[in-house]
Amino acid sequence: MGDAARGVLLFASLLSVLLGLRSVLKARLAQHEPPPSDRLEDEKPTLRRPTKRVARPLVSPQRLNKSKVWSTLCGGHPCLVLRHMSKTGGTFAQALLEQVVDKPFLRIIRDTDALTPKLRSGNFVLGTMRNPCDLQVSLAHFAPSKAFMGEWRTMGPPIRPKKEQCDRGLESGIFESWVLNSRRKTKAGPVGIQSVRFWLMYLASHKCLPIVREYAAKGPKNRESTRWQYSRASREANCTEAHLHSSLKSFRPTEVADCWMFTETYWEDLERCLRDYGSLSEILASSISWERFYAIRANTSLALSLDDRHSPERKSRQTGCSAYFQKEDFRKLEMDADVHLFSRFGYQCCGARQPRNHR
What range does the record give for the signal peptide (predicted)? Predict the structure, then answer.
């Protein structure tokens, strides 16, 4: 075969290869062409997963305050702060939490102590609450004198029933007088003792409670004991009647505490709050002993075998909340006096709380 013939064969081979490459390239380009306009409306877009892994949020925004900047007060982590208010299950909660949560992460604020800005800001605040009517029944039987200590002038003279009367159950007339007299006199009308206590525990400046206690220590017969609101320190800290009314009217439970434990749904709320707190970090999650929690839930005496001073009296007293609030007029007076607690927490007098998103 001559040189000319070999050249023709080589050229033909190269041409065949080029045509093959052209076909392959054309086929690949066709795969990436957009579909005709008449197919765009029929086809659904394909959602592709991002190539970069996106981290899941540590805390669900529906459960905790998404914008809150958490503190590092307790070993580089936010503390679990229990705000104790008398007769709302706080004593039992304290005894339980002290066994369930590692000590370095737990702070207990008693009802005699103020919730300071250092503890409130950036820490996980656990609030306790109870139906105001039931709260009145409990306070009247177990700590009736607390309703007449300090704060504002009351609507009537102090009523301090003897322990024997409380143990067997107060007579309706005595209880009604205790409730009505313990209301506070204000320019805007009577305010219930439970609203005043809630204001001091959660809404007022941390300076107000020490001021009230200082004046209350003067004794109930000392006229100065109820004049604390006129002191210079009280005015500077805004511990005023105007602040009492405005803060009760405008407060939102989810802004006051990070999680609420209601006496009526005690165990469910406490478990939910502990899980919310543990969700903040793996270290906080490991600081909670769920084995101990469920053991105490199955046998509450493990937490309060020696501390529950009220059990004998509670067992002997048969009169419940609804029996004391049978009169419609009396029930209305109580609900008007503590109206904002009823409305904000979804309570009816002695009735079940309406489900709401109170963290």
Answer: 1-20
